[in-house]
Write a structure and sequence with these properties.
alpha/beta; 10 helices
């Protein structure tokens, strides 16, 4: 095996132009770790946020990326789940396990699951962070049940379009917000109702929902409280001000901010939904690793339906 690998690295915070392809030593798997040769790696909003701002990672240098799909190249001491040659997909431990925008990664074995056989590496790489976020929000946190009503904001986005399918698979009634041009796409994924957020105030159009999943932030958490029944839940992926929590308590609504975690069990459940044909990622665009900056530029326009994926020079 080669002793070096290509990575996309940045030395300073800034715009997409700070991303540079370079060569670094290839890592070796430690105790309870696997070395994975990356075939494809997803790009998420958290990537361009961390590229520009000192959020969780601190100052550079670092390599971004948490989503990965590839093949196990080697295993460390104590690993029993996988062996070299196994196709896997997973999310590197968020946030400090970052580094999938590279030809190889090492990570704890249980950050991965077996890749579903009915999707390729590009499709599999689009799933982990976004699908785990949706799964942990709706299944683990909300404990969404059949017949409940769920409102999903940015339902055509990376997390949103997967959350729609997961909610539908759990038997929920799904309402989504998205621009009108994406309504047919999201309805095709299982949404029962769609609201054009550019033309309609969702807070006036929706009521009596059991769960709201907010991926937008800003004034959305506060406005969403008006749509939730007493005893319902607001799950936000972005922080909201104390006033929102206070108003939620007054209304009898449980309001929480959620951060995704790596999760072998959750990934396995997601893989089962994919295998059963109940969950599929929408691929907005793919880019070779060397064009990572272009992926960031497109993603930051915030009008992408589905996911962006980086590919390596290996057969898919």
């Amino acid at each position: 095996m080669t002793t070096t690998m290509r990575v996309i690295r940045q030395e300073v915070l800034g715009g997409p132009e700070v991303l540079r392809e370079t060569e670094v030593p290839r890592p070796e798997p430690g105790i309870s770790q696997v070395l994975v040769r990356v075939h494809a790696a997803g790009v998420n909003p958290t990537d361009w946020s961390h590229r520009a701002f000192p959020i969780f990672l601190g100052p550079p240098p670092f390599t971004l990326g948490w989503d990965v799909s590839g093949v196990v190249e080697a295993t460390g001491f104590g690993v029993t789940l996988f062996q070299p040659g196994d196709e896997v997909f997973g999310m590197l431990p968020y946030p400090h396990g970052v580094g999938s925008h590279a030809e190889y990664v090492t990570a704890p074995t249980r950050a991965f699951a077996r890749k579903p056989e009915n999707v390729d590496h590009v499709q599999a790489a689009a799933l982990p962070l976004a699908a785990l976020t949706a799964w942990q929000a709706l299944n683990d946190t909300a404990r969404l049940e059949a017949g409940q009503r769920v409102l999903i904001h940015a339902a055509a986005g990376g997390v949103g379009h997967l959350a729609v399918q997961i909610a539908r698979a759990r038997g929920a009634y799904v309402i989504g917000t998205a621009s009108a041009k994406n309504h047919d796409l999201v309805r095709g994924l299982g949404a029962d109702e769609m609201i054009d957020y550019q033309a309609t105030d969702f807070a006036a159009a929706v009521s009596d929902v059991d769960v709201v999943l907010d991926t937008v932030g800003g004034d959305y958490p506060a406005r969403s409280l008006r749509t939730i029944r007493a005893g319902g839940q607001l799950i936000s992926l972005l922080p909201f001000p104390p006033e929102v929590a206070e108003e939620a308590a007054r209304l009898g609504v449980r309001a929480q901010v959620m951060l995704v975690e790596h999760d072998h069990g959750g990934l396995s459940a997601i893989a089962d939904l994919v295998t059963e044909g109940k969950l599929r990622p929408v691929i907005a665009a793919t880019f070779p690793l060397s064009d990572s900056a272009k992926a960031h530029e497109l993603g930051e326009k915030r009008h992408v339906a589905g996911k962006l994926v980086l590919t390596m020079d290996v057969p898919q």
